[in-house]
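Per your request, structure below.
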């Protein structure tokens, strides 16, 4: 009798388990009565107000459902709704036509959010499993949880840059005059806050997994971001103007 490699059996079991979780997740995508929208809204509120509170949520999900990744699509549905609504405000502010808005929304969803998110989640999923997890630990970081962390980290910047920044759009778009230093200082502060939010929530997400070590490495980008912010102030670079010009060019 030919003996099968136990590692192959374990690997096949992990693949089947992952497939089952993905299938169950998307099967619930259109069953709104099974979704907990109230809990998803609670998560969104605390992502903005006190993201550290969600660490307990991640650990509780692992204890009760044997996985860190969400099995309820409610957060994804609300996230998509917030992305569409803020994109409408963005399009109105920049005076997009309907065709330009449609192109902008497609780029925002499938490139800026999902595409870049898949790249970041896959890179961090590989790095955490390869370098930050003890060799003798059988449990792996789930790719689905890595993507969940990206969505969590993407939500506060989305609200900051696609909602609050637009409220002060005219104020932060000053290219010259006495208010130009004010526009650079406070406008660039929005972008700094958004970037720091993303890094910090990413850190909290992986820190909730007690199997990982050296998690503080995730905070290394923050001093670099602050230095970049100070450099933009010194050089008088208005990030808002640069980014909005890029947005206009990409939908031409």
């Amino acid at each position: 009798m030919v003996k099968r490699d136990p590692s192959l059996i374990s690997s096949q079991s992990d693949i089947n388990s992952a497939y089952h979780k993905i299938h169950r997740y998307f099967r619930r995508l259109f069953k709104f009565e099974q979704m907990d929208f109230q809990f998803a809204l609670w998560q969104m509120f605390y992502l903005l107000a006190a993201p550290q509170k969600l660490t307990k949520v991640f650990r509780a999900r692992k204890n009760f459902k044997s996985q860190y990744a969400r099995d309820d699509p409610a957060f994804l549905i609300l996230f998509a709704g917030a992305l569409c609504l803020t994109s409408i405000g963005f399009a109105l502010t920049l005076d997009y036509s309907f065709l330009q808005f449609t192109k902008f929304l497609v780029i925002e969803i499938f490139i800026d959010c999902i595409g870049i998110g898949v790249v970041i989640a896959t890179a961090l999923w590989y790095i955490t499993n390869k370098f930050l997890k003890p060799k003798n630990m059988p449990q792996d970081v789930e790719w689905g949880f890595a993507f969940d962390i990206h969505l969590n980290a993407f939500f506060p910047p989305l609200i900051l840059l696609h909602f609050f920044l637009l409220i002060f759009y005219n104020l932060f778009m000053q290219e010259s005059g006495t208010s130009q230093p004010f526009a650079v200082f406070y406008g660039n502060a929005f972008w700094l806050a958004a970037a720091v939010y993303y890094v910090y929530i990413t850190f909290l997400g992986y820190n909730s997994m007690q199997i990982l070590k050296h998690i503080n490495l995730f905070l290394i980008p923050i001093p670099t971001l602050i230095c970049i912010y100070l450099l933009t102030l010194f050089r008088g670079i208005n990030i808002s103007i640069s980014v909005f010009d890029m947005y206009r060019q990409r939908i031409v």
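The CA atoms of residues 180 and 211 lie 48 Å apart.

Regards,
D.
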